Amino acid sequence: MCGIVGYVGPRDATPIILQGLQRLEYRGYDSAGIAIYSQGEIEIRRDAGKISHLFDLVSAAPLHGHLGIGHTRWATHGEPNARNAHPHLSSSGRVVLVHNGIVENYHTLHDELEAEGVHFQSETDTEVIVQLIERYLSSSNSLVTAVQKALSEIQGAHGIVVFSRDEPDKLIAARIGNAGGVVIGLGDGENFVASDLPAILEYTRRAVFLDPQKIAIITPASLQIQTLNGEIVNWKEQHVTWDPIAAEKGEYQHFMQKEIHEQVRSMTDTIAGRVNFSFGKISLPEIQLTPEFAQTIHKIFIVACGTAYHAGLVGKILIERIAHIPVEVDIASEFRYRDPIIEPNTVTIAISQSGETADTLAAMEEARKKGSTLWSIVNAIGSQAMRLADGFISMQCGPEIGVASTKAYTAPLVDLYLLAILLADLRNTLPTQMRYQLVNDLRRLPNLVGICLDRETEVQEIAHLFTDVSNCLYLGRGINMPTAYEGALKLKEISYIHAEAYPAGEMKHGPIALIDKNLPIIAIAPKDLWNEKMVSQIEQAKARGAKIISIANDGDERIKSLSDRVLWIPQTPWLLSPVTTIIPLQFLAYHIAHQRGLDIDQPRNLAKSVTVE
Ligand code: F6R
Known about the structure:
The chain is α/β, with parallel strands linked by helices and 613 residues long. The protein contains 20 helices and 27 strands. Strands 3-2-4-1-10-9-11-15 form an eight-stranded antiparallel beta sheet, covered by helices on one side. A hairpin with a 6-residue loop joins strand 7 (158-164) and strand 8 (171-176). It is globular and about 75 Å long. Residues 305-308, 352-354, 357, 360, 404-405, 489, 493, 609-610 line the site of fructose -6-phosphate.
């Protein structure tokens, strides 16, 4: 959630850092700041509010120098204001630090330092780290040693970048635990550091991802990585191919709208290179799945949060139906504490767009501890979830900037479909003809998605029906039950309308009491195995005066006769139908929020990457 950018080299650090922070705006933040080393001093500008405000502060009182750090903060300890915004200075003013994470033993350290006479300037947990570094600098006189000592005292997961006015040739970055990713960008006679790649992609494609419990000493011409005990470790450079232009809004008003429209491309890219239509075969090389291993798998767990969890719910149906392997789907934050029973020959699949979600990473660790094989489906290349896993599938969607996840929902649906076919094939449980059919069904998918996208205006036209609405109910069944959950989540997070999703068959067990003319019902009713059931549940709601908006397949006259409005989608093979049914619901949430004039790409209280528990 917090963003970090640092620079050391011959160029003016200020614009590089400010633009880098701007590229991280999508992570969500409530204050921003920058520190630059200039003529023997550390100068800081920081305040609550958006980065545009930080630009104003810097143009009112310019900063120039060749070494600096910047930060966007999402408040955890202390309200968002100038005092609590990062960077934070030590009491002598010689060390400055930015931080991503939560210091779990903050109170103990704070009281200890205060008893030693430290006068705290902020209410943040972060300040204890810089004050600890100051404490150890007095005895060691080496910034690296002081950082190592300070970090060995703090609990929790962290990413930090720090520099000292006494050693103005270097930045020190560190990573503790799984949260707080740190990536070093290698330049020519200059180096960069950031919490996320997009911040530095404009300057370099050469990246070194810092592993947990490591410290990086970064000068313009060198990079050295050490353990917390000072042992030097080898590092490996990776070449990154993401195009920063892909991270621009282009012709669309919001990233969310752009990303919804990118789903034809992401579907095509997801299928490309992995599907051999001639032989009806799937290849997912990064998962490193052998027939021998596939045949031993007894059970699969899927762990994820939010939208990724909803993708996992669809994945359960896909894997159970196609590969006949039992699947349990868990919300990662629950899985990590519920002491799951993991027997031999279990695989745990983590799904995560960012690959940095703290709960998902902890669930992976729990599964690993209990002997499970780990796979992940991730969008962010080089992320933790990718690196922790024994094998991975990368979502082929490119960076997702809008906080509300859209293309990173549909991509894993197809990844899980591919995985299910591959598993079934390697276990010899899928009749050849059915395999060909399932593979062939993928051919039309990008086009079907395209047809749904072309109907955006039809969705936009009904957004006004929600002008005075404050509650909404989404109903679905079977493979489209998760579509109802995901549709409701999209509406909640960007339009702030309370939305609930229910398996339609459960209505009679209680929620039907809610129904009246003021509660719009969104019924997901494509022509699939559950269509008849949905029809009867729509009838029951209609009889109680509910306003019905249905998602239905072209030409379904029965649904049309029962609904106030229908959002039409093309007939899609049923196992792939969650890919098309969700698209009108993504648009619906988008246009309702747009009509309400809300901040669609950065909804209140939300962050793109939830790296704390
Ligand atoms: C909803 C949304 C969140 C994320 C969740 C998991 O639109 O974006 O619910 O899906 O925080 O994030 P990742 O996939 O990065 O692990």
